[in-house]
Design brief:
immunity, mainly alpha, dioxygenase, 390 residues, cytoplasm
Length: 390
């Protein structure tokens, strides 16, 4: 199992020709598909203009129904999944509860092949939906753009790219996971302390990066047809099933890297009064690319870091562990602040203007959860993972 984790964490750093991104979860893909599939890319790229002009639905319905058999390689398949997910979101949120078969059939088949659901997931809109303006330049916000834009312009662009940069900032911690497991195995407290300090530093860097998101508004264009009042029974995928299907939309809960930190540190999100948050996070692993899910399961099955640290008499080791947990608490606290400012407050204001009463706890996230309840629960269970240092 340790060999599997080491192989995964070394993969991207070894292959610089393949990707300049030092993260096993972020995917660098090209902007073009083989000629016959370029109609998907073209329509997805024109989505904002066509939606504004009221022509997107008509253009989508005129797409040919294509077999996915000629898509070659993982990156082509992921680009196609991203493009079809953009088209699907654009079509559905123009008051449609049936996705036409020319979109539904290839999207469903491709999703099954990739082990992803047929909806826009975090791995699409964040991990794969980016490019450098200057290919030789650094991976910074000013040198980046999304492959596919959404209604809202810089608002949605900012949300997706900042989320990506958070992933990148936290990525260096992945390199020390094998060292952490090796230190626990050999009961080497000094080595473990050093590696945990590296993890804490990476998570704090991710927290600082996350604070860029306050500049941008959240886009509700990426949403869910699970626990959704607008599509209470789900979405019908024409040519696939006459029974509506429910899927959660792209959500930060689908971030492999954040769940990886929980698994590594042994943070449990189940409490005596609440099992929903832990079950939801477990469910969200099914919305990750299969290799990410396998990696997480490997880390979770191997990790005994918390047990080792808690049984140690080394106060400095416990402090190093707690710094990792505190960094995650900072991120989750800030996430709550962003949600309150950009989702809860505007939603409450709109309801008030309409003369409607609403509860903040009823506001749904992009994954279909009761947003504040879920985020508070995860934040609080993270806090409870702190160890006594005396």
């Amino acid at each position: 199992m340790l060999k599997m984790v080491r192989r995964w964490t070394c993969l991207e750093w070894r292959n610089e020709e393949e990707s300049s991104v030092n993260c096993i979860f972020i995917l660098s893909i090209k902007e073009e598909l083989p000629d016959r599939y370029q109609v998907w890319v073209k329509l997805a790229k024109n989505l904002p203009t066509l939606v504004e002009e009221g022509q997107f639905r008509e253009e989508a319905e005129q797409l040919p129904e294509l077999s996915i058999d000629e898509l070659q390689g993982y990156k082509e398949q992921r680009l196609a999944h991203l493009a079809l997910s953009v088209i699907t979101m654009g079509y559905v949120w123009q008051d449609r509860n049936v996705l036409p078969r020319n979109i539904a059939v290839p999207f469903w088949n491709l999703s099954e092949k990739l082990g992803l659901p047929p909806i826009m997931v975090y791995a699409d809109c964040v991990l794969a939906n980016w490019k450098k303006k200057d290919p030789l330049g650094s991976m910074t916000y000013d040198n980046m753009d999304t492959l596919f834009a959404f209604p809202g312009g810089d608002c949605s662009k900012g949300f997706f790219l900042v989320s990506l940069l958070v992933e990148k900032a936290a990525a260096s911690a992945m390199k020390v996971i094998p060292d952490i497991f090796e230190a626990v195995k050999k009961k080497n407290s000094e080595s473990l302390k050093e590696s945990l300090q590296s993890v804490a530093s990476s998570v704090y860097e991710a927290y600082k990066t996350f604070q860029l998101v306050h500049v941008y508004l959240f886009s509700l264009f990426c949403f869910s047809w699970k626990n959704c009042s607008l599509l209470p029974k789900g979405l019908i995928y024409e040519g696939v099933s006459e029974i509506p299907k429910e899927f959660a939309g792209g959500s930060a809960a689908q971030s492999s890297i954040m769940q990886c930190f929980d698994a590594l540190l042994g943070i449990q999100h189940t409490t005596e009064n609440d099992e929903k948050s832990a079950k939801y996070l477990e469910e969200m692993r099914n919305y990750m690319p299969s290799p990410h899910k396998i990696f997480l399961e490997a880390v979770a099955s191997h990790s005994s870091v918390r047990d080792f640290v808690s049984s140690s008499d080394d106060i400095q080791l416990k402090k190093a562990y707690n710094e990792c947990v505190k960094a995650l608490v900072h991120i989750r606290n800030y996430h709550l602040q962003v949600v309150n400012k950009y989702i809860i407050s505007p939603s409450s204001k709109q309801d008030s203007e309409k003369g409607q009463k609403s509860s903040d706890d009823e506001v749904k996230g992009t994954g279909g959860t009761n947003l504040l309840i879920f985020l508070r629960s995860v934040r609080d269970t993270t806090k409870r993972a702190l160890l006594e240092e005396s």
